[in-house]
Design goal:
Blueprint: H1 14-25, E1 38-39, E2 56-66, E3 71-77, E4 89-96, E5 99-106, E6 115-121, H2 129-132, E7 140-144, E8 161-167, H3 172-177, H4 181-186, E9 189-196, H5 203-214, H6 216-222, E10 226-232, H7 243-248, H8 251-256, E11 266-271, H9 274-286, E12 300-302
């Protein structure tokens, strides 16, 4: 593996840093089935079809896993010196012809990881995703150098319980945050909701839970603080319905055995479709929570970078 600097901005002590580094190098972070998750044997970058633009990173794809005909994740090398806060996004892209094409993607790996992970939808005629879905280990992915975003712990005021409301690939920033030690230092309870159309589209979320349970260090750190609440809208499932309906009718809270939203203790993060963002925001504000930002922390935050 190419040498990387690893950042432990949220680790409390040297022992925490040592454990994270040791387990990451041993391949214990984000394990996956070897028959599905193809790892590159040769990590040298493939020859570029066109000149790589100045001022961007050119990173090597390490592994790709396809979940459905609409969803996939991939991991790539992390540039030495690239810092980000868990929950932020970056502009990633490919050379399409002789021009780079970029889109905003949440970084799904935590800030301490030596590699970068992304979770993507497949859009057949998408300017980027129509090409990105065909990447394989050894290919080159471009990334601009400055990450940003509002789904970060710094944008929230202190609280007891953190809700992460997501639909579809909106789970990506939370994939980063639920694997970050700081999340569990700041909150006693973390609830990840993930709503998709079909059960098959929930698999990435289930894989994340399994990876945390099987990770020697994270399993102990997270313990029973993390609750996963998956729902679907089109098939029969243990939890069915839009998350906004389940908030409004109280089923979310009764299923989890927690009280209704309370601005004194509850904090929220929202990432999903534009309609879901608006409706969930309205419900949180109705419960008395105030939206925050990087400049002015509040009781919930929204990521709008992917809405359009």
């Amino acid at each position: 593996m190419r040498g990387h600097m690893v950042y432990f901005a949220f680790a409390k002590n040297d022992e925490t840093k040592r454990l994270l580094r040791t387990e990451r190098r041993a391949g214990m972070n984000a394990p996956a089935k070897t028959d599905d998750f193809v790892v590159a044997e040769n990590q040298a970058a493939a020859p570029a079809a066109a000149k790589i633009p100045d001022g961007v990173y050119a990173e090597t794809v390490l592994a790709v896993e396809h979940y459905t005909d609409r969803l996939f994740r991939f991991r790539m090398t992390r540039p030495a010196g690239f810092r980000f806060r868990s929950g932020e996004f970056a502009m990633i892209g490919l050379m399409v012809g002789d021009k780079p094409v970029y889109r905003a993607y949440s970084i799904a790996s935590p800030a301490w990881d030596e590699e970068l992970e992304f979770f993507s939808i497949k859009v057949p005629d998408g300017p980027l995703t129509s090409h990105l879905q065909a990447i394989k280990p050894g290919d080159t992915v471009l990334m601009r150098k400055k990450p940003t975003g509002t789904l970060v712990l710094d944008a929230l005021t202190p609280g007891k319980r953190l809700y992460m409301f997501s639909t579809g690939t909106g789970i990506a920033p939370f994939a980063s945050l639920i694997r970050d030690p700081e999340t569990y230092e700041k909150f006693e309870e973390v609830i990840l909701t993930h709503t998709c159309r079909d059960v098959a589209e929930l698999k990435y979320g289930f894989d994340l839970m399994e990876e945390i349970r099987n990770h020697e260090f994270l399993a102990e750190l997270v313990g029973d603080k993390l609750k996963h609440y998956p729902t679907v809208t089109r098939e029969e499932f243990s939890h069915k319905g839009r998350i906004t309906d389940l908030i409004e009718n109280g089923k979310l809270f009764s299923d989890l055995g927690v009280p209704a939203l309370d601005p004194a203790v509850d904090r929220g993060m929202i990432c999903g479709s534009s309609a879901m963002l608006k409706d969930t925001k309205d419900l949180l504000e109705k419960a008395g929570l105030v939206e925050g930002s990087n400049n002015k922390p509040g009781e919930f935050v929204i990521e709008r970078a992917f809405v359009g």
